[in-house]
Design a protein that fits this description.
Elements (H helix, E strand, L loop, with lengths): L3 E5 L3 H13 L3 E5 L2 H11 L3 E5 L7 H10 L8 E5 L4 H10 L3 E4 L4 H12 L3
Parallel strand pairs: 1-2, 1-3, 3-4, 4-5
Protein name: Response regulator
InterPro entries: Bact_response_regulator, CheY-like_superfamily, Sig_transdc_resp-reg_receiver
Keywords: Phosphoprotein
């Protein structure tokens, strides 16, 4: 079943690569370049899952996830954090913000497939 996955990352290259992987796995991808745009797109498009970078200009991933989880229109959407900063502190902050998964950069197809399956029940 086709799912929509929102990819929020300030790197155009990362957005393109992850978007292609999501599509190869049989899903639709939409992208945003910062947390504020990610929040607005989440409200508008109601994706099945969000992959959220942590460090971004304008609004970072933690703040964007707090907004997503605090808004009744988007609070149900699962958020997996995506970052090169896999520190214990980042993992704790990700969970406190409402994230349910943590993906490290660079990502491989198998890891992304497993995360999508674990979070929204499909590969």
């Amino acid at each position: 079943m086709l799912k929509t996955i929102l990819i929020v990352d300030d790197s155009a290259m990362i957005r393109r690569i992850v978007s292609q992987l999501v599509q190869q796995l049989g899903h639709q991808s939409i992208t945003a370049e910062n947390g504020l745009l990610g929040f607005e797109l989440a409200v508008k498009s109601q994706p099945d899952m969000i992959i959220m970078d942590i460090e971004m200009p304008i609004m970072g991933g933690f703040e964007a996830t707090w907004k997503i989880k605090a808004d009744h229109r988007t609070s149900h959407i699962p958020v997996a954090f995506f970052t090169a900063l896999g520190s214990e502190e980042s993992i704790v902050q990700a969970k406190e913000a409402g994230g349910i998964g943590f993906l490290n950069k660079p990502i491989c197809r198998e890891e992304l497939s497993q995360a999508i399956h674990d979070i929204i029940g499909t590969a």
